[in-house]
Design brief:
It is a single chain. The chain is α/β, with parallel strands linked by helices. The protein folds into 2 domains: 43 residues, no CATH class; 190 residues, Rossmann fold (3-Layer(aba) Sandwich), CATH 3.40.50. 38% of the residues lie in helices and 14% in strands. The chain contains 10 helices and 7 strands. Strands 1, 2, 3, 6 and 7 form a 5-stranded parallel beta sheet that branches. Helix 10 links the parallel strand 6 and strand 7. Helix 5 packs across helix 7 and helix 8 crosses helix 10. It binds zinc ion (ZN) (2 copies). The site of one zinc ion (ZN) has 8 residues, from helix 2.
Length: 238
């Protein structure tokens, strides 16, 4: 194939079927694979192996609960994250968060859907982690809501935007989990307690690191029956 024609063809495919015909991570040809090309499948992209039964973090020993969850009680029951947040996964998630690559939400939602498939959860509402209005204006959208909407179609479960973020979160860089949790909780508010009361909730975020954000969301929805959380990727803490 003539090289310039191939380049044009690639560009057309990117616009028309960016998430179906190209690798979700590198945008390369799928070479017979689904979702990820074989080059990306060779890298350590999946959050798999021995993982904490609460926060889904990888564990190096034979324990079922990670050191972090042994010391910190979560307000959700379990969280699910299909990918590891590093390398090309981090780059791709940042493209959804900061680079207007909204089409990625569909592929990411499918990965979460597949991860949840064996769990037999009964979910009544999907609740996205809210974004502050200044971030929504800057990005044009809330990435967590985009993923929640795609997940809603796959799971046939409605989205409930039960939470809002009233203020930006102050810089969290040097804070521990407890201070992060206090910081984030103080910026959010429950605006639809009626809908979620007594229901099974799945909180959706793009990335989970210390779980402070999803715990803060869960702390505002105490009247829900069961609360689970999910995200595209998990930062490896250990
Ligand atoms: Zn790839
Ligand atoms: Zn854990």
């Amino acid at each position: 194939m003539n090289l310039s024609f191939k380049k044009i063809k690639d560009k057309v495919l990117d616009v028309v079927f960016p998430d179906d015909l190209r690798c979700l991570l590198c945008g390369g040809e799928l070479d017979g694979q689904e979702v990820f090309c074989s080059r990306c499948l060779d890298i350590d992209i999946f959050n798999e192996g021995t993982r904490c039964i609460y926060c889904d973090a990888m564990i190096k020993d034979d324990n079922t609960v990670c050191d972090f969850c042994r010391d910190n009680h979560h307000l959700f029951e379990k969280c699910f994250c299909p990918l590891n947040y590093n390398g090309i996964v981090r780059k791709t998630v940042l493209r959804l968060k900061e680079d207007n690559a909204k089409y990625l939400a569909k592929g990411f939602a499918k990965l979460i859907y597949d991860r949840l498939a064996d769990e037999n959860l009964k979910i009544d509402f999907i609740v996205p982690v809210p974004s502050h209005i200044s971030m929504i204006k800057k990005r044009g959208y809330n990435p967590a809501l985009l993923i929640a909407n795609e997940l809603s179609l796959l799971m046939n479960v409605p989205v409930c935007e039960a939470l809002v973020k009233n203020a930006k979160t102050p810089n969290q860089k040097f804070l521990d989990y407890k201070d992060r949790f206090a910081n984030i909780s103080s910026t959010m508010q429950l605006i639809d307690g009626k809908t979620i009361k007594g229901k099974n909730i799945l909180i959706v975020d793009d990335v989970i690191t210390t779980c402070a954000t999803v715990d803060a969301c869960a702390s505002l929805m105490k009247k829900a029956k069961h609360i689970y959380a999910c995200a595209v990727a998990r930062t490896n803490l250990f």
